[in-house]
Amino acid sequence: MKMSKEEVMNLVDQGLWLPLMEEFYTIQGEGYYKGTAAYFIRVGGCDVGCHWCDVKESWNANLHPPTEISEIVENAIKYSDTIVITGGEPLTWDMGPLTEALKAKGVKTHIETSGAYILTGTWDWVCLSPKKIKLPTKEVYEAANELKVIVYNKHDFKFAEEQAAKVNNNCILYLQPEWSKRNEVVPDIVNYVMKNPKWKVSLQTHKYLNIP
Ligand SMILES: C[S@@+](CC[C@H](N)C(=O)[O-])C[C@H]1O[C@@H](n2cnc3c(N)ncnc32)[C@H](O)[C@@H]1O
Ligand SMILES: Nc1nc2[nH]cc(C(=O)O)c2c(=O)[nH]1
Ligand code: SF4
Ligand SMILES: [Mg+2]
């Protein structure tokens, strides 16, 4: 029996179905788990609007088919015991049902988030990549395992310090070059990290490896 548009929208609102843009088994390219095999689930929908976003096709949730979470989970666990939920902005949606279903299967749940919305879901690892145009909520600063600030220009070092002051004490601090500006900003990041060794460098290593 085919569901009406309203019925599907209602299930998406509850996090029981999610707009699924793509999913792929790859190597985590960034941050603390870089180099580790993981299955990525890219959920559609984001209204943060970073001008340099490398997945703008994810923004419009209506372009990505609403998919039942049990289907997403059954497929994902075939590939890996580490599942990375990214987007788009995953916290656009209620991540509770998806992560509970993944945890019930005994796999690890990681999130890539701007933290711009209320934190939902059960997470083994939270990567917070804050954005000036829509700052993270308090709960995400407290839950973040790693802070990954994107450096597009020299002002971003000041933003990075402001964000580091807001995360919990155990949070690991990364500076990651914005991809199109990498040649300009990498020397500044290298100098900054040597002067301020509480920070580490994160690169988008999957782009160098030519993998998704
Ligand atoms: C596409 S976002 C999706 C998850 C979430 N919306 C967020 O921003 O964290 C995944 C990661 O890629 C980073 N990112 C996006 N575009 C980038 C770019 N052009 N250069 C470097 N990192 C980028 C984001 O900051 C985030 O850490
Ligand atoms: N290999 C790989 N690693 C990643 N780490 C974060 C990504 C993302 O887009 O969220 C990403 C991605 O798109 N590919
Ligand atoms: S928050 Fe993430 S998905 Fe949204 S525009 Fe920014 S980088 Fe792209
Ligand atoms: Mg990416």
UniProtKB/TrEMBL annotation:
Co-factor(s): [4Fe-4S] cluster; S-adenosyl-L-methionine; Mg(2+)
Binding site for S-adenosyl-L-methionine: W52, C53, D54, G88, S129, P130, K131
Keywords recorded for this protein, A-Z: 4Fe-4S, Iron, Iron-sulfur, Lyase, Magnesium, Metal-binding, Queuosine biosynthesis, S-adenosyl-L-methionine
GO molecular function list: 4 iron, 4 sulfur cluster binding; carbon-nitrogen lyase activity; magnesium ion binding; S-adenosyl-L-methionine binding
PROSITE patterns per record: RADICAL_SAM (PS51918)
EC number: 4.3.99.3
Involved pathway(s): Purine metabolism; 7-cyano-7-deazaguanine biosynthesis
Catalytic activity: 6-carboxy-5,6,7,8-tetrahydropterin + H(+) = 7-carboxy-7-carbaguanine + NH4(+)
Any single biological process term in GO: tRNA queuosine(34) biosynthetic process
Positions bound to [4Fe-4S] cluster: C46, C50, C53
Ranges of residues in domain Radical SAM core: 33-212
InterPro entries the record matches: 7-CO-7-deazaguanine_synth-like (IPR024924), Aldolase_TIM (IPR013785), rSAM (IPR007197), rSAM_sf (IPR058240)
Residues given in the record as substrate binding sites: I27, Q28, G29, R42, T86, P212
Cofactor, free-text remark: Binds 1 [4Fe-4S] cluster. The cluster is coordinated with 3 cysteines and an exchangeable S-adenosyl-L-methionine. Binds 1 S-adenosyl-L-methionine per subunit.
Domain of life: Bacteria
PANTHER family for this protein: 7-CARBOXY-7-DEAZAGUANINE SYNTHASE
Subunit structure of this chain's protein: Homodimer.
Role noted for this protein: Catalyzes the complex heterocyclic radical-mediated conversion of 6-carboxy-5,6,7,8-tetrahydropterin (CPH4) to 7-carboxy-7-deazaguanine (CDG), a step common to the biosynthetic pathways of all 7-deazapurine-containing compounds.
Similarity annotation: Belongs to the radical SAM superfamily. 7-carboxy-7-deazaguanine synthase family.
HAMAP family per the UniProt record, alphabetical: QueE
Protein name listed in UniProt: 7-carboxy-7-deazaguanine synthase
Organism of derivation: Neptunitalea chrysea
Gene field: queE
